[in-house]
Structures are given as C-alpha cells and as structure tokens.
Amino acid sequence: MLVAGNWKMFKGPQETVSFLESFEAPAGVEIVVCPPFTSLAAAVGRGLAVYAQNVHWAAEGAFTGEISAPMLLELGVDGAIVGHSERRQLFGETDETVRLRCEAALDAGLRVIACVGETETEREAGETDAVLRRQVAAIPRHDALVIAYEPVWAIGTGKTATPELAQEAHETIKELHDTRVLYGGSVKPDNAAALMTQPAVDGALVGGASLDPDSFAEICRAAVS
Question: Residue 86 catalytic?
Fold first, then answer.
C-alpha cells in the first residue's frame, strides 16, 4: 500500500519540519509527503519519501514559475504528482501536458503519481468510463509510475466515492494500465479503511486530512490493516 499526502499550498518550511518531527510513521506502508516547492528542501532527509506537486517537461528554459526534474533531483526529491485535477481545472493542464510532464520526470529518474478522474457533470452524463479511458491513454507505462483516481467532485468537497464506485473505477483503470492505482478524494480516517480494503485500491492520495500528523498517521495505519 502507498499513501501520499498532498499538502497543496499549505505548510512553509518551519511547519513542514514540525509536522515531520511529530509524525509517527507506521511500519508496513509506503508513505510519501508532497509539500509546496518552498518546503521540499526542509522535508528531504527526514525519513519519508518526498514528492513535488508538479514538474515541468523541460530540463531548463524560459518557463517562469515552473520547476524542472533536474532541479528537484538536485534537492533530493524522490518524485512528483502530475495532472492533479486542480492543475487541470485551474491552470489549464491537458492530457498532452500531463503526458509530457510524466515522461520528463520518469526519464530524469523521478517517480510519478499521475492523476485522473471525472467531474460531477461528466459522471452525471455517464461519461466516467470515456473520460478515464482518454486520460489514462495519455499516461506512459513505467515501473516508477502509479495512477491516482480522484473523482473531481470528491476533492475538497467532503463527498467521497463509495467503496463500490472506487472499486469500479480502479478496475477500469487497471484494465487500461498495468500499475498500482490510488484513491484520492476526501480520504479521511473514518473512510480510509473501507476504501483501501477494496481489491483494486492500492493506497490513497490524501489532501486535507494529510495536514495533521495524527490524522495522516491514522490513515496510514488503515492502509496497513
């Protein structure tokens, strides 16, 4: 099981150190933290794998505001999230740019969590399968890549896919791509076990509940059990 905490735009370097000093990682689960860019250096070397929340496809160049894979590797970062729904919705990410970012990160030696998922409108229109097939088709095959299924309607809304819906979506993704698949979308201590006991669910990409060390530890323990 892999459990990744996506801190989004929370926790500067000082808060990052405080979190990692108080977090008690259970044995038997692979744990990743994904701090903001400014906190990556503070997180590296403190016992957990550290992923960035994004990575550019070019090694260097005139791309204001972007960070390259070689820069992350120089910091000691292990991997990156790519294609998170907030990047797709708010910052214009497309299936093509997700593919480019994944390939660049993997080629450079980073590990990747590539995100896919449908909006509420797409689910209500019966388009979930088609959306997942389109998004997954853009993701390269690689041993260092896992996919996170994050129904967009469940991110930051308090809504969560039922374990049965999560299982169904994960089965679809695994038919298309031979890799581990994490569930992301309002994962909390009280629903983590039910989600991660589904046969096709290989862990979780956790948002808000990963900001508190006790809450995140409880979710990680659910992955072990």
Answer: no
What is the band of 225 on the pLDDT scale with cuts at 50, 70, 90? confident
Return the number of other C-beta atoms located less than 10 Å from residue 44's C-beta: 16
pLDDT in tens, 115-128: 999 998 998 899 99
- Six-digit token pair at 114? 């590539």
21 is catalytic: no
H helix runs in 38-182, sequence order: 40-43, 69-75, 85-91, 95-108, 120-124, 128-137, 163-176
Active-site hit among 84, 93, 118, 177: 84
Amino acid identity for residue 181 in this structure: V
Which domains does the chain show, CATH number per domain? 2-224 (3.20.20.70)
Terminal-residue alpha carbon distance, the chain: 10
